[in-house]
């Protein structure tokens, strides 16, 4: 059975390492906010292309909202933990500390997403699975390394970015573990069916040792070979994300005219229950105001329901018996499923979303084809290194010199750091330039 004191304070004997004005977990949050990878989320779409009118969410605003919901979940669950485990209070841990851990991990939850979101992830995977200059690397890589490439995962890229010294984040072990919703590598031969934590993977093969050390320091138990139980706070991070994208994607869909306001109000009213008053809602004159109040009340209800499930299942989490999404266990789960089905039908398959995804596939594949071909020729086929290849190589960041890499996997990881770290606009602009569709300054 895992132990909360070690899960929260693996190395400190004097509480949360509080500075004069902030705890180590508040410092985690601040470091993420001021990091370049987080700032880049402002120009990465959440679902919709960024319109000229009518605000819709970017990855940045989505991450801030998930963090806000995560803080509420963490503080409420934290109060329960402090009251249940007196040793935590004796060590100087309070409910705000637990809220700050969840808030920081939730703030970073999308930090590894490539341009164009999930379409970007799939585009990277498809490039290595199907493109000639993607498949060409397979014979040069170990099985585990190849598995990372043909199933690119933004969660694993995020773990890598949080570890990267050049990003200067150095967040606490508790926040890093809470961030890791899928504590397993891409290649897992003894996957356990039905465990939510094994649905995807959370770190690349070359970060396996780093996660092993993290798990050992926190007392996170292994599940099978090379897979671990979740840190219990990771369930709250996941729930915060689930709550936000369910409710806020629906709100965006309504704002853009894809879902009628009355239909959205009816769905959110089912979540709110007896607290919903049609008469009071009429007092708000604009659709935007009606949406805002309904969204706030629905999220508040979902937070309360989620914390109740967390409290009920907390000991089972510590023992590894519970491994499901909290939002699938709450009373409002059937309504969230109804919202999900409606969102797929009317929002995620809308013309503007599908056009954005199609463009993302073209852009990501085009960039990878140019850079992968040039890098491959440089390393393995010098006789085919063309003038175009040399020009492409000069576009790589200064700290990414192909000659620095003696092995192909670290080289490809660096290339994917470069591509996945781009904003949507920069990726599109660079694609146009390398393809000759537009010229610099044009």
Automatic annotation (TrEMBL):
**Source organism of the structure:** Negadavirga shengliensis
**Record has Nucleus as a keyword:** no
Q: Where is the HD domain?
A: 59-246
- Does the UniProt entry include the keyword Hydrolase? yes
**UniProt-listed PROSITE patterns:** HD
* Taxonomy, superkingdom: Bacteria
Q: What is this protein called?
A: dGTP triphosphohydrolase
Q: What keywords tag this UniProt record?
A: Hydrolase
Query: Which Pfam families does the entry link to?
Result: HD, HD_assoc
């Amino acid at each position: 059975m895992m132990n909360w004191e070690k899960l929260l304070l693996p190395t400190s004997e004097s509480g949360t390492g509080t500075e004069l004005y902030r705890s180590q977990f508040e410092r985690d949050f601040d470091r993420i906010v001021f990091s370049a990878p987080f700032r880049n989320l402002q120009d990465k779409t959440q679902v919709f292309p960024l319109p000229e009118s009518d605000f819709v969410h970017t990855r940045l605003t989505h991450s801030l909202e998930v963090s806000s919901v995560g803080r509420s979940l963490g503080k409420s669950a934290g109060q329960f933990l402090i009251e249940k485990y007196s040793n935590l209070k004796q060590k100087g841990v309070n409910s705000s500390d637990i809220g700050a851990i969840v808030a920081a991990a939730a703030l970073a939850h999308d930090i590894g997403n490539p341009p164009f979101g999930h379409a970007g992830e799939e585009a990277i995977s498809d490039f290595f699975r199907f493109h000639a200059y993607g498949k060409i690397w397979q014979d040069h890589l170990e099985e585990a390394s190849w598995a990372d490439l043909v199933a690119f995962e933004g969660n694993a890229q995020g773990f890598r970015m949080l570890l990267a010294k050049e990003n200067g984040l150095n967040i606490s072990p508790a926040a890093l573990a809470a961030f890791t919703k899928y504590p397993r590598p891409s290649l897992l031969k003894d996957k356990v069916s039905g465990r939510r934590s094994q649905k995807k993977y959370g770190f690349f093969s070359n970060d396996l040792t780093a996660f092993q050390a993290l798990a050992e320091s926190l007392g996170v138990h292994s599940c099978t070979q090379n897979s671990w139980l979740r840190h219990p706070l990771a369930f709250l991070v996941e729930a915060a994300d689930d709550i936000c994208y369910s409710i806020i994607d629906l709100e965006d869909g309504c704002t853009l005219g894809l879902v009628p306001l009355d239909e959205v109000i009816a769905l959110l009213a089912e979540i709110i229950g007896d607290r919903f008053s049609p008469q009071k809602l009429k007092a708000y004159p604009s659709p935007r105001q009606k949406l805002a109040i309904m969204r706030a009340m629905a999220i508040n209800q979902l937070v309360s329901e989620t914390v109740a499930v967390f409290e009920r299942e907390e000991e089972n989490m510590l023992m590894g018996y519970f491994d499901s999404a909290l939002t699938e266990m709450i009373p409002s789960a059937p309504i969230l499923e109804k919202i999900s089905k409606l969102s797929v039908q009317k929002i995620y398959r809308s013309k503007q979303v599908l056009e954005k995804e199609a463009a993302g596939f073209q852009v990501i594949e085009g960039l990878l084809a140019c850079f992968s071909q040039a890098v491959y020729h440089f390393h393995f086929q010098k006789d085919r290194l063309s003038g175009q290849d040399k020009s492409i190589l000069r576009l790589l960041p200064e700290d990414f010199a192909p000659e620095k890499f003696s092995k192909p996997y670290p080289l490809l990881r660096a290339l994917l750091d470069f591509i996945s770290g781009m904003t949507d606009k920069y990726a599109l602009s660079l694609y146009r330039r390398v393809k000759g569709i537009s010229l610099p300054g044009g």
